[in-house]
Amino acid sequence: MTSQHDETARGRRWASPLWLTVGLVIGLIAAPAVAVAATLSVVNIAGPNGTKAVVAKTGQIATTVADPGSFRAFHKYGVGGTCVKVFTAPPGTSMIVTQLTEDVYVMGNQVGVSTGASCVSFLVDWNPPTIGAMVFPLGPGIVIPAGKSLYAIAYGGTAAEIYGYGYTVPVAAAPRVTPTTPVLSSAEPQGQGRR
Fold it and tell me: Hey, how many other C-beta atoms are within 10 angstroms of the C-beta on 147?
């Protein structure tokens, strides 16, 4: 027959490891939330509407990059065998182009978009296999400063229209045009170059 003293000692022997295990489980659940909170800090960067940006200690912005009111879109119909101006950034602002769409409506062999007026080197270049559209995501964006333009050309009888999307920032925040060195888009078919 066991005494009450033996029962109490046995209970204490199990209580310590049990509480230690419970404490570790709670720590594993709570620690990630505390760690995430510790890696964020509010900095004194505010937009025109007074909203402050949240920036991680690594320097990455943890909220939206642009005010939704600065969103802009543009469109150019009739891109063919001549280098044409597609869009010009408005005075006092730079346009950050984050996406381009090349929509081919007459089949040919190539459509390209450039920041150079001669359309010699392309930011995006597509050899369409058929009539239709191709979307080119351009994150973090292509800079077109105030008064500068984006151009397009099509080769081999191709006729297309260009759609662009992005946002505006003060020209001092992005004063230089992105050079016309090719940007490899994940949407671009591989193994096809300029003809």
Answer: 13
